[in-house]
Fold this protein.
Amino acid sequence: MNSLLQSSSPKTPLSESEVADGLKEALINGSNEASSILSATDGYYGDVIVKIFLPQEAKIITDNLSKIPGGEKLVNDLILRINRAAEDAAKDAAPIFINSIKQMTISDAFGILNGEDNSATLYLISTSRQDLYNLYLPKIRQSTEKEVMGGISASESWDALTGKWNLFASSIAGKLAGFTPVNTDLEDYLTNRALDGMFLKVEDEEKNIRQNISARTSDLLKKVFSSIDN
């Protein structure tokens, strides 16, 4: 790989270290901002784009709960708790991102800089998603294990519902009717939706710094990203 990358100005070529340092700075800024946005109160819950809802298969639970006095409030409270758990987890996401960013190689940096508008986000997904999953899952699990009604938690209600449904769907009558078992792991589903929201915000920040000159808040960022401006 060439040691220099020509910027928009022929007098100010970029060194490999500048490209790497610039990309790391951009990623740290973007991931910190995404974590800050989502860890705020209503960071998830108040944003319709990233708000976490129960899986579609839970509709029968929520529909039935909503028919009893106070049932709709119980459902809404559960969704609120799930989103609050995600907001709590987001507070600790930044160090995980930073650890991943520190591992970036020169080759990674050039690939990201000259890649698509979400290349940096894809890099973070590949290098940090599992660690973030491990961070979020216990907090989501704690939320779903709290009692919803009658001493039963959302997790227990989900297991009971899907267990009965799967017995029917696997029966001869169920198969003839074209039904299929539901294999959604509730906590896994909710955790992955929370992570999808986090990476969506990271992607927004990445696109902003690539497309908006005013978002380049240091001389290094201005120099590095001006090299790919049209």
